[in-house]
Amino acid sequence: MCGACGRVVVADPTLGPRRTRRDLLVVAQVVNAVTSGLAGLPVVRVGGDSWVLVGRTGTSTACDTVGQLWEALAAHTKHAFGDWACLTRRLEDALPGVTDVAGPVLRAGLAVTAPRSEAPIPGLDRR
């Protein structure tokens, strides 16, 4: 809890103890880039200190951490496509060559979706 304002502060293992507005916007941009073109999936927007998944039918889901964001997207992907394979493939394709905030965000997405898909992920150690 924040000592100054009394808000609940959520620790995000992906972004670390301090996250800025820029971090939130970059995460939303990275996730939207990965999921663009997958019909029926919600769009990620920044809402205050968290993200909001806005569905095509007007539904919204608030997510406080990157992990929660990928869990919600995995659930939407499962509902829309029957499995997570398409999301896992897009994450794998986007991972090579990324740096800064995008790399940990994509790896967090793979950590959520890869155990659920059948295809092994090259370069990802699953011990």
Automatic annotation (TrEMBL):
Q: What is this protein called?
A: Uncharacterized protein
